């Protein structure tokens, strides 16, 4: 986790528009508090909001712990392999060049760069 804290802090200091939302999978509130309060400078869904935490994890396809999912400003998934990105892209450059799948489809359709096999109408 220290590496993620460094990654996040560096991006914020560089003026990057990025935020992390911690979604705990802890079994007990004290475990959540011990881990979150002392280690993380970002937002978190309150521990007692079980339904909200589990629905979000399900919606994002979180299948393992820990997981780090990056979303764009519209809530579209950029990558579900966020931990790999943090370890392999310490300055965040690749993250900010990524576009969501939804953005790529629109871009491809607008530019008639059809890789899906579907016909794009203009």
CATH architecture type: 3-Layer(aba) Sandwich
Largest sheet, strands/sense/barrel: 2 strands, parallel
Strand tally: 4
Top CATH class: Alpha Beta
Number of domains in the coordinates? Answer: 1
Could you tell me how far the N terminus lies from the C terminus, measured between alpha carbons in angstroms?
A: 47 Å
Q: Tally the helices: what do you get? A: 6
- Alpha-carbon Rg, integer: 17 Å
- For this structure, the CATH topology is Glutaredoxin
Salient structural properties:
single chain, 122 residues, mainly alpha, Glutaredoxin, two-stranded parallel ribbon, two-stranded antiparallel sheet, 6 helices, 45% helix, globular
Structural account:
With 122 residues, the chain is mainly alpha-helical. It has a single domain, classed as 3-Layer(aba) Sandwich (Glutaredoxin), CATH 3.40.30. 45% of the residues lie in helices and 7% in strands. The chain is built from 6 helices and 4 strands. The strands form 2 sheets. Strands 1-2 form a two-stranded parallel sheet. Strands 3-4 form a two-stranded antiparallel sheet. The radius of gyration is 17 Å and the shape is globular. It starts with a helix and ends in a 12-residue tail after the last helix. The C terminus is likely disordered.
């Amino acid at each position: 986790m220290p590496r993620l804290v460094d990654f996040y802090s560096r991006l914020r200091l560089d003026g990057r528009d990025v935020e992390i939302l911690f979604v705990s999978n802890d079994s007990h509130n004290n475990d959540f508090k011990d881990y979150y309060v002392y280690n993380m400078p970002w937002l978190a869904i309150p521990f007692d909001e079980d339904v909200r935490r589990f629905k979000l994890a399900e919606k994002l396809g979180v299948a393992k712990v820990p997981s780090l999912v990056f979303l764009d400003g519209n809530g579209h998934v950029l990558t579900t392999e966020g931990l790999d990105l943090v370890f392999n892209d310490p300055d965040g450059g690749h993250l900010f060049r990524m576009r969501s799948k939804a953005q790529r489809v629109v871009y491809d359709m607008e530019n008639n760069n059809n890789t899906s096999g579907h016909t794009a109408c203009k």
